Amino acid sequence: MSSFGELKMIWTKPVYTISSSNAANFNQLKFISSKTGGEFLNLNENDPKKVVRSLLFQPLKFLGIENNAQLSEVYPSLTQTISEDFVLTGILKENQTTVKAKFGYGNEVTETKVINLNINEHAVKDWEISKFWAQKKLNELEIFEKENKEEIKNISKQFSLVSNNMSLMVLENVEDYVRYDIAPPVELKARFDEMVKNNRAAKDERVKDLMDDAERMTQNLKDWWKTEYKKKKELKRYPEPDYDEPIDSDSRTQRIEEVVVTGITNQGGVKESVYAPPPTANVAPKVDASPVQVDRLEVPVSNRRSNDIQEVVITGALGVKKRQDAMVSSSTVITSEPVRNQQINVRGTASIASNNSVQSLEGRVSGMSVNSGWTAKADSMKTQGISEVMNSGRVNLIEVESSADYMKFFNSAKTPEKIYEVYLKNRAQYENLPQYYFDVAQLLFKNNDKKYGLKVLSSIADLDIENEELYKLLAYKLKQAEVYDKELFVSQKVLEWRPFDPQSYRDYALALEDNGKYQQALENLYKVLTQSYTRELADRDDGIEEIVIMEINELISKYGSRLDLKNINPKIIADLPVNIRVVINWNKDDTDIDLWVTDPNNERCYYSHPETEIGGRLSNDFTRGFGPEQFLLKKAIKGKYKIHTNFFGERQVGIAGPTAIMAEVYINYATGKQERKTVVFQNQKENERGNDDGILIGEFEF
């Protein structure tokens, strides 16, 4: 059906289409049955018992007219079942002609009716016969609504007919004519032209302001990307010696904080002196706090390996610190575990365990890891571009399980077939609840059955024609299921219905990218920055430029050689690869969903704290509209990151049910090696405003 894809006539046998809904596309159902020799059965208009007869017996049908050069635009032009009344319309070129209408069963003509037309004898003045013809033509045009959009608009305006894309309205003043771009009466024409001219100037100014904002935002992102974020250093605290306890010089649990390894490399080897200053105050457990002088260690090194040693790591005592000496490229780390069997690690060689404290570097050194660092200098020079942010990490998305009562019906259903059986059994009870179809589809996708999952999911689109909330929900789930062709179809529908929303262009552009249509994706993303929006919408979506700029530059970074950039403002093009990117979208207008990201330092990035110490960055807080909100981190530090969403509130309730949220999580975004994971869920706390915990939807770990 057209609610879930383009119409493709693939049937070779009669197809009987049946409808019990007032929201069905009747013209398309009639077209399918007519073209295949089947029958359209409308259960809302006819007694079901009577309808059954249509399945058992062939009804009488109008099969068309014989060729007649005096007639044009004859409707219906398709086969039509004869019920009680039948209306045949057309345009007569001359004053009179003879029409031969053909009737029969199936495709066989069994009867021909001859109709003589004479304009002088049959003309009527009381009926607007032209409207009968226009309505018949309109019905057939709407079968392929997208292709016939302009002609539908023309017919509807000329004959004052209501269609899927047109409605009747009362225009009370000249402002109404300007608002809807309708030609006014002569007496309002001068005022109309003046207002249109002023509006055009204001529109051009708004477009310019939007692009200026985009340029400023791009520069802001560049400055942020170039900023080096470093963790604040903690000051050392040296405890005073405890003179009440004797020092046990033989103890192997001495508190050692730092060991400095110095020496001069020569062909005879390296002489290294080791010094351990007092420990810091926050090291536990507390032991003897007196300074300890450690004897000099002489570590001979063979001529062959003397130039390879760049880093020495000593493990096996309490405390952790690192320091590099100016004379030798070496560093030392002391761990907080008692000395046990330890090992020496030389990069490029195997690790060797030992209990000895002084041995040749060719053999073993207790408590030391020696790392060859001949590539360190080359690595340190990679301070720009992709190499600066590439970092391996792991994403774990958390499924937000539905808490709906009907989910208990599926507890014992372990196979897709059984899940679908339970779904059908209970569908009548929840047929108008989108969340039911969403949750069951989610369950089927989880069980790796895409066919049944899509079948259930398609029911969402049939609940209400032209409902953007339902279709956005559908598009999110199709993206997550990687059914990209259907995602594109649904996103395009939303754009047709809501071309005044920047999010409509963005969603459509991202669906185009998923389908490999990169030039079209770029052009539609750029439209977000070049459309003229009402002042209200411009204020509502202030800050969306930041998200779109990142997505434009991601496209350019991946497919630049295949894209035509001549119409793209070069001031918004920038190389902005990042380690972490998280974006949340939602399907309802006038809704406030917050994105929170907590880093390994337990610092949360959210709307009132949009920048973190390590460089985390959050876009504008969207308190109305459809979002989106975005988190960026150029370079991730080691540890775990938590992603939460917080449902703050909505200002409307519709057929789509609880707000649906889609979170897209990226690692190494715009590097050419990015990874994306998507999670979609409906809010489980519909009646609650923001809370302290939010909903945990995923974690990063680096």
Q: What are the segments in which pLDDT stays under 50 over at least 5 consecutive residues? A: 249-383, 686-690
Overall pLDDT confidence: 77
First-to-last CA distance: 46 Å
Total discrete domains:
3
Question: What does this protein look like?
Answer:
This protein is an alpha+beta fold and 702 residues long. It is 29% helix and 19% strand. The chain is built from 17 helices and 24 strands. A 5-stranded antiparallel beta sheet has the order 15-24-21-17-18, with no helix packed on it. A 5-stranded antiparallel beta sheet has the order 19-20-16-22-23, covered by helices on one side. A 4-stranded antiparallel beta sheet has the order 5-3-7-8. Helix 10 runs antiparallel to helix 11 (450-461), helix 12 (468-480) packs antiparallel against helix 13 and helix 14 (502-514) runs antiparallel to helix 15 (518-528). Mean pLDDT is 77; it is low at 249-383 and 686-690.
Briefly, what is this?
With 702 residues, the chain is of the alpha+beta class. Helix content is 29%, strand content 19%. It folds into three domains: 2-159, no CATH class; 235-243 and 251-378, no CATH class; 394-498 and 577-701, no CATH class.
